[in-house]
Task: structure prediction
Amino acid sequence: MKKILFSFIAAAICTAAFAQNESKLAATPQMGWSSWNKFAFNINEKVLKETADKMVELGLVDLGYVYLNIDDGWHGERDEQGFIQADPEKFPKGMKELTDYLHSKGLKAGIYSDAGRMTCGCKAGSQGHEYQDAYTYASWGFDYLKYDWCFTENVNPQGAYKLMRAALDWAGRPIFFSMCEWGQSKPWEWAAGVGDSWRSTGDIANTYADQVHYKDDGTTWTSLGFVTIVDLNEPLRAYAGPGHWNDPDMLEVGNGMTVSEDRAHFTLWCMMAAPLILGNDLMNMSDETMAIITNREAIAIDQDPLGIQGFRKEKNPDGLEYWYKPLENGDWAVCVFNRSEKEISTVIDWKSLDVVDSLSGRATNFDDIQYNVKDLWNAAAKPVTTKKNLKVVIPSHDVVLYRLTPKVNY
Ligand code: GLA
Result:
């Protein structure tokens, strides 16, 4: 107990110093992998260590996917003093041994809890144990906390999330705080400075547009196809930026959609400066999935240092959507998304596609500035510029993605 008290005091002293580093944790949207979308409750130290090894072997860590996040289902019981324990069958060596392993591989470690009595999977929630749990996560060496919103009954969200924020600061370890309250209380309006990111919508499903309904113990839970999520997250762009990101949920790339849909999903997440948290089985992944999640230039759009969430310029009756994202050094990302059920051939007439973005104060000027156009999903494409119209064929539910760079001395 003495030891614990000492650590508590030491932690409190360190708080001020670490608090200054917080925003640095989220200078760009977080990247990593989470157990939930594919493994749900079927997690244990073996599968997580194997995933960590794969993340290193495949070069994902070098690409920026640094967090390995354990989602719901890791919990055992609380001990007599109320300290949470890991499930001894799933994690026989304990959490500290696991985070040491992850850190030794160059990864960061994420854990999951809930502001209510129980997690969504009916494990022990943090309500009434916030400081104790923050202390435990810090002492186990975790670097990231996803904090869910099940079984909160009539708790005030601002109070609950600010309480855990304060507990994390007090615990004295820089811990990325990923709020998961599904956008119900409009956290984008109040949570900058509380969470490093906040979920802006309900849960994602591995579907294009369908909603999937789960019934469990009399409760109904709806998960959303990714285009439904896009429509909910897109209007929130003014609230996102370095240190405080809109989070339209973890990626479903590689979890059963078509390659076109996976590519569109990944691309739109990059255009929206969304967290890139992989959710597939890295041990059993197709070459197509691997090519999508390792596209450096698409990732660079997501991770652009300006941190401006992109926007939809227009939605055409044929189903084509034009998306723009201002990037550093006067560059732009432009994505054309074919939302329709059929392949579309079109001509990109740059001069008719100028945008003025009042939020960032940036504008394109295709009359006076010529841009080099780099096709980010087709490395074999011939280099072209915005001087000429560009003919493209976009399969149903697919995208084209370009990086535009102002041409000097043309
Ligand atoms: C909620 C969250 C999901 C996941 C599950 C775990 O539904 O929104 O992302 O963490 O709980 O039970």
